[in-house]
Amino acid sequence: MKRYLLSIVLGVCTLGILCTYYTYGAADHLPEYKLTTVQGDPKEGADLELSGNYDGRMHTESLVVNGNGSKYRSRETLRDQILGARSWVYNNKEMEQWVRDHRQFMRGKDQTEGFYKDDEWLVYVKVKSPLGRVNQKEVELSVERLNLKTDEVQQYTTQIPVKSDSSNFTNVVDVQRIKDQLHVLASQDTDKSIQYFDYMLNFESGAFIQGEQITHWNNTNKDIEFDYDILYNAGDPSGYAVFKVQENKVKSRGENSYSFEPSGVHLYVYSYQSGKLSALPDPKQILIHGTVYGHTGEVLNYVNVDKNAVHLSRYNLSTGQEERDYATIKATELDAAEILTANLFEDRVYVLMKKGVTPLIAALDVSNGKVLYVGETALEGSALDREKEMKLLNLYNINITKTTS
Amino acid sequence: MIEVIDVHKRFRGRKVLNGVSFTAEKGQITCLIGINGAGKSTILKAIMGLTPLKSGMIRIDDAPVGPAMYEKVAFVPDHLTTPTGMRLSEGIQFMKDFYRNWNDVRANELLAFFKLDRTERVGNLSKGMAAKYSLLLGLSQDTDYILMDEPFSGIDMFSREIIAEVFSTDLIEDRGVLLTTHEIDDMEHLIDQAVLLQNGSVQLAFDCEEMRTTEGKSVIDVMREVYTG
Amino acid sequence: MNRYLKLVNMEIHRFRYILASLMVVTLLSQCGSLIWTIQRVVSAKEKGLTQAEVGFAIPKFLSFPWAIVNTKVWFILPILLSITVLVLYSMIIWYRDWFGRSTFIYRLLMLPSARWVLYVSKLTAILTFVFSMIAFQLVLLVGENMLFKTIVPAGMRTDSTFVEASTIIPVLDTLLPKQFEQFIYSYGLGIIGVIVIFTAVLLERSYRRLGILYAIGYSAACVGVILSPFILGLDRSNSYWYPSEIYTMELAACLLISVISVCLGFWLLRKKITV
Fold first, then answer.
1. Which of A95, B15, B49, B220 has the most CB atoms around it within 10 Å of its CB?
2. Model pTM?
3. Pairwise CB contact (< 8 Å): B75 & C106
4. Domains assigned to chain B
């Protein structure tokens, strides 16, 4: 037996130490937080996640907190990393739902802007090889449509004319179906500016009907730069596209950097039906830091947040009428000391707040500002270090995640 | 009976064995004779399953080569096969651990007979001592057959005498022995069967006793005829 | 079973001095540099010197992970050395039986048990060495933590968890993942690596000169297969395959490589190996 002693000791010690480590030693003792309902319907909080950092360690630990507990980044395994890949695509609530319902059709489709869905059809449009070639006169659009009733998939490709510039990049930014026409809103990113075009295709055959340049933006002022953006329609297709153009005043221009500050926002609505682009009533005065916009169907909502209150305003896109501050919710009404940020998603406004050291989140009905849910981040386990551990927790973002249904 | 049947082997494009066939019987000493590079060692390795063959077959008591065979056939190569860091006693212990046919009493007898020091490290053995130690490991297995590769090569005269002495004991007599050599002198009187190899094939296989009585030729005479004539 | 354990025991026995040396080198390098790092800062603090005067950062409070991070090079080097030695030994564990004055491989191949037992016992031995080093590092960390507490006065230090120390530098984080599942992934891949090395060595030992080409080709193919699911574009959002499918493919690829490598290794030992 003696000659086996070394191996036995080595084996037993190694096994013992590793088992001990994974039974007791490997626990990281990071505090566990959980989102708990304070008032309202817990279902409203089920899709919510708050992300931020825990600063009680030498390295900052990033984490998300939701109704099930907290997930620290440092606890992720290889499996979590692989399954969580492309989260920017699959964490989108709509995309996630479609992937679940139409797994085969959704393969390789990653541009949320390229989708259109109504009761009958799920359509995906993309530009084949969106990278610009010099003096290109046409680009190829690929259209795939899934009949939701028969599960049939059809695909066609269509050549569309583009503005021939020294080089350009064409991207699909919105897709709408108006009766038997498919409208593909595309941006063309040239050397000088971005312009938007509405391409009409025959929905049945995919044949190209006509293309219109709908914006003619140009910038002559050297000290002002524009950011062009199209607001994603989170609601049912409505026949409207909303553009947000932000004006930035250039403060300094260095060799490799420049700084600017926002100086105004212009909103435009485009009606696919009439083909008209019109400016929404002067929105310049609503430019407050942290304004959040949300396009849902025929309504454009915007939310202004300050420390003490959330102000809800909206435009009716068909009439262009503005209802400013139709609802105001004070922090005190939500039992919070301070409001941090807000988010708009579909028909909800989510508000991140703080009360002392406790992060709170509220869900409001966007149509009337009614409080549907308030949740708070609670420390699970011993209450001894509560104050200290809550102080070390900094949550910054609201994520609306996958449906739990 | 060890049967080698039409064995072919190539190594780096050269035909090392080219249709070798012969048999070695139990209770007899069979000697593979050939100049260096004639393929003698390769045949022994092939019998022990230590090198693959291109074609042909090897059977031991009508069974193909396999793990069970190693309890039946012992192999004494012309060099050490025990790690140099081990003591002689550890090498013996290793054999005892793995072979059911290990005969510890005989190992101790041989240890004394060869005057080997069991606490010595294998790496420190002189060439003659190493050959004795290898022989000890081979002979202490109770096997039906024993293969020896050049048991006398490069060994001093006195060691040869001692090893030759072992050949005439009952340690050898009941077994089938297959050995190789390129210098026949010391062992001519020990051999029952001779197999002459040349260019990877058997030139002649004969019974030494019969050759002596019927044709009056010694093994060396036959060798001279085959290799030079 | 018995013969297998005896073979493992023998392999461990043959490597015991190198294993012990690796442990001693690790111990001396880590503890030595740790003591030096801590004492330098503690004495600076005691004398009330500032960062500008001493030329290195002086934190308000010292913690054990901080000490490890600041000992970095001498902490990591012995670990990297051990990894290198063990990877090399995965090959040498075979070659040492072929080369030198004594060719032990004759004896090993002539053992009256199936030859795959050799393969498995050598694999077990390598894994035992790896896990012994890991376990030793764990115990060493506990010891180093005690050392830290002895040297640094209570008023100058803050508490830390064990895991914080064992995951603070990337090498340790990889070797000692705090999730057991990740441990399986890390060492599963490691074991596959060793198996592939074994098979490559056996290819070379079976076919010699041509075998070197086979071995290189085989290893490259294995790396290719293991990486192939990722080449399908895990991070490319317009990839045809979903992440969950890529995960399954990766598991399948790993399983395939292990099974093929082990079977090929066994077959080579049984049919093709030459001494």
1. B49
2. 0.89
3. yes
4. 2-228 (3.40.50.300)
